[in-house]
Please model this.
Amino acid sequence: MTRLLRAATIVWVALRYGLDELVLTSFQKPWLRAIARVASIGRDLSAPRGQRLRMALERLGPIFVKFGQVLSTRRDLLPPDIADELALLQDRVPPFPADEAIAIIERSFKKPLNQLFTHFEREPVASASIAQVHFATLTDKNGQPREVAVKVLRPGMLTVIDQDLDLIRMMARWVERLSADGKRLKPREVVAEFDKYLHDELDLVREAASAAQLRRNMAGLDLVLIPEMFWDLIRPEVLVMERMQGIPISQVERLREAGVNIPKLARDGVTIFFTQVFRDGFFHADMHPGNIMVSVAPETFGRYISLDFGIVGTLTEYDKEYLAQNFTAFFRRDYKRVAELHVESGWVPADTRIDELEAAIRSVCEPYFDRPLKEISLGMVLMRLFQTSRRFNVVIQPQLVLLQKTLLNVEGLGRQLDPDLDLWHTAKPFLEKWMLEQVGPKRLWRELKEQAPYYARMLPDLPRLLHGYLQQRPGDEWQRELRQLLHEQRQTNRLLHAILYGGAGFLLGLLVMQIIVRVRLWW
Model:
């Protein structure tokens, strides 16, 4: 009954704001256009269509607002008037009353507000779908005043999100049963993945921990700033962090006037994304413009400022290596290797013909190389890849849904900053360097150092363990096993010698190449 009531609410809101007119009038069938005309009787639809869509999404709640936020970054797929209105969802969702925010803060810390902050601004500086932010001032442990931002969770969020997710789960079951692609797309697993991340976003302690991890990871990159967390003032419903000063990244003209190098800013965004994904396997997965500013302070001029860490993505070592190999092969236009990787990973059936899959991938990707971002629609590329994947029964991987969403965010942001950005050439050197570190001598040396303590503890025990094992075996049997062990030891020694000599030859070759390059440069 709860789901039916929520479904009825969604239909009522859609009719109230004329969303049926936006959809039905675009169809060619006369009877569908007639339904739209009948549904519009007695309603005031004088407001622009983009405004009505934005208001409807705000009325329907946080999940629909987030859907609008993702759409707002894809100006290549939306009419300009709708994209402009949806962009307002990024930081202009209607706020809830300040008295409610203060009550949540005081309840969380069991203290009156004036004992926590020396100053608290009642007017929120930003209001998003999950929480809103107030500026405040406090006295730190050294007695110095610190400007902070106080993030307060919207009241009643858990109930609303659970209701919407119940509806989406029901729709996912229908898709899985009724659609020919249902099982391959794994809609229920995808919904479960979003369910996890949405509930994580409702716990501000988890968000603070994610921010602290990203701050450590990005400390040496000098491209992005992440606010400090005040752990004494963090609770599941309240988060207090360092106040960041900067210009919203969506205000490109202000950035130009401040002297920021916009093309470099666009390239830095791609570098930050690929570093977080492939180096760390831990990435900011909500990179829409409302969550990003640019520092204009002299000591950090031109750096990104990341905000809102409620949604982060993680990748396993296998995921990272598989994706990096795919990207690298793609950038090299090695479509055969891309096809082979799909088979090796189990994304397509093992009996798939490599040459057919290679030809299909080439036909999708080849037209987009060597073209600036303004001439490329990643949305169209993904749609054509989806059509190809359906033909070859590609199994969708739910754990990569957040990565796909973030990649769309990054592309939309790059398009907004620098339409001439060449996404491929910006990312290719980074991925090639990363791959060299993963499969080259650096990785071998790193793993040897990591495993050395384990082998150092194990080696002294080997004679005792071998002696005890042999004493438990009958004479003939242990002699056979001893001969087998000796044979395997000889094989292992040969392999080790081959590895050592091969490694030495490889390093010697690198040294010779370096000498040749330096001599040629000198001449």
Remarks:
- The chain is about 60% helix and 10% strand.
